[in-house]
Amino acid sequence: MLQLVLLLLIKASVLCLKLHSIMKIQMKDWKVRSLSLQFLEKPQKKNSFGLSLANSYSEDNDKEFLTGFLVVINNTEFKIKLEMAFIFELDVPIDDKFKKSDFVKINAPAIAFPYVRSYISNLTLQSGFSPVILPSVNFVQLAQNKMAKKESK
Question: Which of 15, 133, 143, 152 is 20 to 30 A from 123 in CA distance terms?
Answer without folding.
Answer: 143
